[in-house]
Design goal:
about 260 residues; alpha/beta; Rossmann fold; three-stranded antiparallel sheet; 8 helices; elongated
Length: about 260
């Protein structure tokens, strides 16, 4: 009788332990993604029905006033997959390059990248950034050298006219390379906020075998990227929701 009681107690303890493990597992893979919060942020609003890319059909929930509505259950699933991958590469000290050149989101992208210590491109994508990285690296080094001289007063020896010319060149270089100055080798992955706007970044990444995570609105082909996130890529609130989740994952992974 005593042995039977002990066996039941042990069985109960094993079940409780299993439940606790399952809870932890859910917390680790959930990343706090909320369908309600995504709906409030307008993540589910796609483009007009006439602009649909056929390969986005599996991610749709229907239409509203001639606008496609994205299925947020599927967005949550795909966002979690993307966040898990980001968590892995950051934990392994690999490099994620953030690309967001669309006018309405580029300041937001820059702020998030700087908060997370990520290299970024928020102005025009330079052809050859990945496929001709050797040349780009030399230009980055030239920019950094000029920046150092400027900070240390090394330009004082030049005439006023020469300094104006140098400052003008420095301004142009800063726009192009400010976000890339800590990029010493090809990135391991790209996070692209609009694959239609930055289609050249997608092409170059695929040529170099670099993984791509990207917001995929209803007017693009999600199969072009490794980790598509079906979502509105125009609304700042939608992009901000996704980038805040990315920021949270990166900061926690770096803290560990």
């Amino acid at each position: 009788m005593k042995e039977l009681k002990e066996e039941k107690v042990k069985e109960k303890e094993v079940k409780e332990e299993k439940k606790e493990k399952e809870k932890v597992s859910v917390k680790e893979t959930d990343f706090g993604v909320s369908i309600e919060a995504m709906e409030k942020a307008g993540v589910n609003f796609g483009h007009r029905t006439t602009r649909l890319h056929p390969k986005m059909e599996p991610y749709l929930a229907g239409t509203r006033n001639t606008v496609h509505i994205i299925d947020l259950e599927k967005t949550a699933e795909k966002l979690q997959d993307a966040l898990k991958f980001i968590q892995e590469i950051v934990s392994q000290d690999k490099t994620l390059l953030l690309v967001g050149t669309k006018i309405q989101v580029k300041e937001l992208a820059k702020d998030i990248a700087e908060d997370c210590g990520l290299p970024y491109i928020c102005e025009r994508w330079l052809g050859g950034t990945l496929t001709n990285f050797g040349v780009i690296s030399k230009r980055i080094e030239y920019f950094k050298d000029m920046e150092k001289k400027k900070e240390e007063g090394g330009l004082e020896k030049y005439t006023k006219k020469e300094r104006i010319k140098i400052n003008k060149e420095f301004g142009k270089l800063k726009i192009k390379f400010e976000g890339l100055k800590d990029l010493k080798q090809l990135p391991d992955a790209l996070l692209i906020l609009d694959i239609r706007k930055d289609d050249l970044a997608v092409k170059e990444a695929k040529m170099k075998g670099i993984k791509i995570i990207a917001i995929s609105d209803t007017n693009v082909d999600p199969t072009l990227v490794d980790y598509p996130i079906p979502a509105n890529d125009d609304a700042i609130s939608s992009v901000k929701y996704i980038l805040e989740k990315v920021k949270d994952v990166i900061q926690k992974a770096k803290a560990k």
